[in-house]
Amino acid sequence: MANETYLNKKGLTVKDLVTTGIFSALLWLTMLIGGLPLAPNPVTTFYMPLSSALLGGPVFLLMVAKVPKRGPIFIAGTLAAIIWFVTGMHWAMDLGYFLGGLIGECLAGLKRYRSVRVNIVSYICLSLGCTGSYLCYFADPVSWSSYMLNGGTAADYINTMNATAQSWMPVVIIAGTITVAAFSGWVGSKLLKKQFEKAGITA
Amino acid sequence: MTKHRGLRFDPRAKLLLLVLCALCATMAPSLTYELGLVLLTAALGLICGQWRYALMGLLFYAVIFGLTEAALAGSSTTLKTTLIAFLGLFHKVYPCGFLAGIVIATTKVSEFLTAMRQIRVPNTITIPMAVMLRYLPAVREDWRLIQDAMRLRDVPLHLKGLVTQPVMTVECLYVPMMMSASRTADELSIASVTRGIENPADRTCLTRIQLGLRDVLAIVCFTAYFAAGRFL
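^ Those are the sequences you sent over. The predicted structure of the assembly is below.
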């Protein structure tokens, strides 16, 4: 029995951890499947955070409903960050998922993980993590690409970079991600109510 | 045990190399420097015995490198801006992704977990991570079964079905997927508890995990390259 106590300290049992792991895997897959169609295309690559937020809502909400304790959201964010990092994604995106998980955890914790609406907000926070690398780009687009020009930066290039349509894009990316994640969460909450709560698989 | 071609590196050293590679790629002063980084990574791949992967990766990068040079030389400004933004992202991500491929191909999950344990990552992270890595391949199998079941019930599984019957399609996908996930979670936690996952003693691993001279050398190489990019 002494062994049991060391994992129970923070209230998470082995079962909770395993559940978190399995739903993190599904959540990560939804990000991957959602993001894949847009990521490799030069024009649509910037809207990748939108599509990668589209599928995860139901998975996220069921995870929180199954383990309504301190930890799973943060763990899911951290795991996503680690896996994305190990698969070689940009560091700002990894950091974004880590922070998104942390903030989402704190928010959902305010209502003790029972309020579906706050849980959806928490999912939005996690989804915004994906925008990290793009925000990093928009924060300083010139130096982002200047290394490619070997010092001799063309004037017209800098001008187009600074002046044209680029300035509205981060707003669209963030607002779009929030909208898509909220929609995904809304679908998730409907599913949760209609199917999973009846089936009795939520905690 | 299968015999492994090439040198084996410590998983911790590989993680550190990934961090160094990310730093190099983020702060790269020039495109030539990026090329050097990819070359260095390819050399590491060769040492690890990943011949095919290293050569293919290098070749692919060479093609993109040529394309980038061509795009920079081109005159159309809008096309250039879009392409450069995208290629900028690509060049930042590619070296890390390339190295990550080598790391993933040469590291076993059990080794990785032992290494995570050795750098004092808490159980609350390592256990879900072990489960996650174990469960990812199982999802594909579930997916096939769900597809079969949907065909049996005459629920179409393509874009058209998603547009004409969105609710039905979404329910038919998510509900069985998540039901089976939550059942697997129960089974897996019972299995892992009986196999002693709660044992507070140190985890053991059949492969010896130890930082050796080769790991130090590899880390020194990448650190030196990073420093060279900063100060030269």
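Chain A touches chain B through 63 residues (CB under 8 Å). Chain A has one domain: 14-199.

Shout if you want it in another format.
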